[in-house]
Each structure stands twice: as C-alpha cells, then as structure tokens.
Amino acid sequence: MEPLFMEAVFQEKIWGGNSLHSVFGFDLPSEKIGEDWAISAHPHGVSKVQNGPFKGQKLDQLWRDHQELFGNQEGDVFPLLVKILDAADDLSVQVHPDDNYALKHEGEFGKTECWYIIDAKPGAQIIYGHNAKTREELAQMIEAGRWDDLLHKVTVKKGDFFYVPSGTIHGIGKGIMILETQQSSDTTYRVYDYDRKDDQGNRRELHIRQSEDVTTVPARENTLNISENKQGSSAVITYLQTEFFNVYEWQVHGFLKLKKQAPYTLATVTEGYGKLIVEDKTYELTMGSSFILPNDVENWELQGEATLIASEPGKHL
C-alpha cells in the first residue's frame, strides 16, 4: 500500500523551451522541450515507476498485468494522460476528435482535455473557441485565412482553468505553462501553424479536412461549476466532474487529509514543497513530482505549502 511515483517523459517540440528545467529543476535532454508526460501509458511516451516493488515497470505493463492496482477497471488502455506543457512559442491552432471519429480514423481514443494555468506571462493568451456560425462559414474562413475573424482569444493568468472538450478549436499561446489532464490520445488535427517552418525548412502538416469534420459548430460554451471545500487553511477545489475524468486542485497550507473516492487517483505538484503520508510512511514532494495512488490506498495526508492538480477516472469508467 504505497503511492507509485512516476518518472517524467520529455517530448521535444518546435515551440518548446527550457522552463521545465528552470521552474521544476528537471534535467532536460534539449533546449526545446515542450512537454513532460508526467503520467502516461500512451505508446508515444510511457511513464516508469520510480519506487517500491514495481520500480522500473512501465505504466502500460502495470495496467495490463496488475489490474488490482486500479480497481480492476475495464478497458485495454490506461485512460488518462497528465502533462506539463512549456509554451516558449505559440502552439498550432488545433482541434481533437471525439472517441467515435478517432477510433474509426486513428485507431485510438479521442481527446478531451483540460488546462490548469501554472504560470503565464503578462498578456499571454490562448485560443479558445471560434466565431463561425455554420460549417460553411467555418470552411470559408479557414480557406481565406481569416484567422483574426475566426479565432476567439482569451487572456489568461496563473490559476485559471479551462475545459477543452473534443471538437473545441484551441491553441496555447507563447509564455504559458500548463498542467493538462486529458484522455490517453495523441491525435491532433492542425488547423493553422502560423506558416512557420521546422529546422529543415518544411512547414508542418495541416489537417484541414479532418479539422472541419470534427469541430463543434457553432462553438460550445464550456461553463464550469467550480466548488471549494475548505479544511482549515487548506482546500480542495473541484474543477470538473465529467465522463472522462474528474479534476481537482489540492491547496495545502499546513495539512490536508483526503479519502479515496475513485479506483485510483493521479496527482502532480505544480507549486511548492511538502510531504505525502500514506499508512504512516512519508514521501517527499517537490515541484513536478507526479504519483498515482492505487486502489488499496484508502486515506492519505499532505503536509507543507504546495499546490497539486489531481485527477481520477470519470464516472463512465
């Protein structure tokens, strides 16, 4: 009965930078690291366990061979993926398919996701939604390159939270670091990439037909019903409870005691330092620490001054 601490998997990106080192202290393999796949069983980047009897084992292997850790959940694929993204430059404008489209055309889950803004430079913006009223108008605006008319931009700040269901046109802007919780999928359809070129002078592939197929038109308003449960100076903020995942912020100021409410729970430290206590055993937490609390962990306590983003499988699982 102990947490599974996961080893970071780093992804080099054209828009990446060095902030995962300067902010979190990660030892990065290059100066263009855009993503830390903190908890992942996706074949494009599988996390390994860092501690305990399963040390060195990959998460996809644990899901397959040790379902007791996850409450004997159905499904061949571990359903969630947690990332930290460092946008040193603008990401492409993109959209993700839902499960039906992705399974038919890509052979994997669709991609619904959400973002917690870890930090943002003053004035930093995301693209979140679009202004087209019909599919015909969407196609016309994309064809004409009327990006200022089409795309809806939102200025963000540290601590903001956004729900990004499949079908939502979106893009993370330069100068933003986020914690992303998503379905375990790596299917992205690029709508626009600012006409930039890679190191070989080539423009990255766009996916206009697929983007027009899967974009929700007109854009849907994703209203959040955020609630807070105080525990002394600490608190649990509930951001989302969806069919795919439930997402929380654990604000630790002194101590925070929590109980299991799902077959397993994922968590990442986005700020501060502290301790995790499970069954009288203490584990040090630093910025960027990511762990899974398996099914046999019924209660745990957090101590220190820290912010963690936690998630668990949604109700349909």
Automatic annotation (TrEMBL):
The active site is at residue 190. GO terms for biological process: carbohydrate metabolic process. It catalyses: D-mannose 6-phosphate = D-fructose 6-phosphate. GO terms for molecular function: mannose-6-phosphate isomerase activity; zinc ion binding. Its EC number is 5.3.1.8. Binds 1 zinc ion per subunit. Zn(2+) binds at residues 96, 113, 170. InterPro entries: Carb_Metab_Reg_Kinase/Isom (IPR051804), Man6P_Isoase-1 (IPR001250), Man6P_isomerase_Firm_short (IPR014628), MPI_cupin_dom (IPR049071), PMI_typeI_cat (IPR046457), RmlC-like_jellyroll (IPR014710), RmlC_Cupin_sf (IPR011051). Belongs to the mannose-6-phosphate isomerase type 1 family. This is Mannose-6-phosphate isomerase. It comes from Tetragenococcus halophilus subsp. halophilus.
